[in-house]
Amino acid sequence: MGVSERAAEAHVPLGRTVEISVPATSANLGPGFDTLGLALSMYDELEVAALEAGRLEIEVSGSGAAEIARDESNLVVRSIAHVFADAGVPMPGIRLVARNGVPHGRGLGSSGAAVAAGVLAAKGLLAGIVRLDDAALLRLATELEGHPDNVAPALFGGLTIAWTAERGPQHKKLLVHRGVSPLVLVPGYTMSTKAARSLQPQQVPSEDAVFNVSRSALLIAALTQSPDVLLDATEDRLHQDYRAPAMPETSRLVRALRAEGFAAVVSGAGPSVLVLCDGPGHRLDAVRIADQATDTPWEHRLVAVDVRGGTVRERAEGSSSQS
Ligand code: HSE
């Protein structure tokens, strides 16, 4: 019997339950469009159990709960199904309980977190049947998300450089200098990544491309060794100005903070703002500026860099489903 026939005959034990935790992420970080990402200490926590094939039960609480699909179009469920299809193993029924701590639709990687959670859930459910290494997790997550800059830090934590080679999506994880203190400013409204991407031009001036190459190279040094150059290192000419008309309050806040010397950038496709301070105390000064710079109220999240990334573990038999 071949490998694919064996996989098709394998079954996840009914009742197998896995617990998954996945961090928020901020992509781009200014100049590193579609390449750089940072994992942040806000988490989606999920439990996924294998049921009889065909059954689907979904409970969601926390951020975005009202808008999240409770059927097979749910992004976590679709991500689990994608991994099972790729592995050639029959998909079991699924019970999913999600407590979402990653702000939804705010440029903090909520869809990347859902995809990473689904891929990790599938890894846990398939333990002992199919082995999924880091390269396979990143490939599968990128197939679902379209670009690897959020899913790489969601899966692996820290600061990630992600790129696509002929052999598939790749990543390099770096540890961030301990002086770097992130602050996230989250508005009450959402921004669609698709709408933000539609504002990008097909071509950019070569001097702007060179500008971003220099700043993104410098940003790696700033985040790992020299936080003192974060302001110059977070300059960008490839995406934020093009997208500014879709999120004027975000743009105003980024400009106000940068004028005061803070390394502020649009987080991912927006509308949240990420401020990379060079010490924890400086974050309160940035909060004071945010409170006065625009008419929009900004929720302040003083976060840490998550160094662990997404985790999955099988729940021991007999333990309660309540936490
Ligand atoms: N790099 C992506 C963008 C991140 O800015 O469009 C959002 O998914």
- What share of residues is helical? 25-40%
Percent range for β-strand residues: 15-25%
CATH class call of the largest domain: Alpha Beta
Second-tier CATH architecture of the largest domain: 2-Layer Sandwich
Total DSSP helices? 11
Largest sheet entry: 7 strands, mixed
N- and C-termini, Cα separation: 43 Å
The whole-number mean of residue pLDDT values reads 94
- Please indicate the count of domains: 2
- How much is the radius of gyration in Å? 20 Å
Envelope shape: globular
Order of helices and strands: HEEEHEHHHEEEHHHHHEEHEE
- Oligomer state equals single chain
Strand count: 11
CATH topology call of the largest domain: Ribosomal Protein S5, domain 2
Coarse structural class: alpha+beta
Uncertain ranges: none
The bound ligands are: L-homoserine
Write up this protein.
The chain has 323 residues and is of the alpha+beta class. The protein has two domains: 181 residues, Ribosomal Protein S5, domain 2, CATH 3.30.230.10; 122 residues, Alpha-Beta Plaits. It contains eleven helices and eleven strands. Strands 1, 2, 3, 4, 5, 6 and 11 form a seven-stranded mixed sheet that branches. A four-stranded antiparallel sheet has the order 8-9-7-10. A hairpin with a 2-residue loop joins strand 5 and strand 6. Helix 4 packs antiparallel against helix 5. It is globular, with a radius of gyration of 20 Å. The structure holds L-homoserine (HSE). L-homoserine (HSE) binds next to helix 5 and helix 6.
